[in-house]
Amino acid sequence: MMKKKIMTNKKAQAAMEFLMTYGWAILVVLAAITALAYFGVLSPERFLPDKCTLPSGIACIDFTVTPTGDVSIVMQNSLGFEMTGVQATLVNSNCTSQIESVTNGARVTLALSGCNVGQSGSKVNDDLNIAYTNADSGLSHIAAGSLVAKIA
To answer: How far apart are CA 101 and CA 69, in angstroms?
Structure first.
């Protein structure tokens, strides 16, 4: 009877040593991942592609962002009617651009200046709102989109 108890204790000790060894290994891996994330090596912003998205009918053809805060967005109206009183706004960067009208099928460049976008080499991730009035009905609309771009 005594011999069986000793065997159980040895098995328990082996199991504890096994768990402790892997526990320390997992702890070291978690510490390494935490350090990489803290220093920005694993920052998801570095891996986001540049993109400009707007609802259907308003196409974002091209865009650039400069470190001086100048943002240029080439937009095309494909809504089927003329847009009047067009105002583009980068919500978090506190800048707007105003254009009188955009006819159906026309491309225009929205020039936003003085935007608070950040330093060269970083990414701007901001909400892009296009406010306009339908020239046919006189009703106002806001098209909400987003802009993710590397600052050149």
So the answer is: 24
Is pLDDT above 60 for 127?
Answer: yes
**Residues 128 and 39: beta-carbon distance below 8 Å:** no
pLDDT at 145 over 80: yes
Residue-number span of the structural domain to which 7 is assigned: 2-42
If phi > 0 it is left, if psi is from -120 to 50 it is alpha, else beta; for residue 57 that is left
Under 8 Å CB-to-CB from 40, ≥6 apart: which residues? Answer: none
Residues 48 and 123: beta-carbon distance below 8 Å? yes
Q: What is the CATH number of the domain that holds 104?
A: 2.60.40
pTM, entire model: 0.71
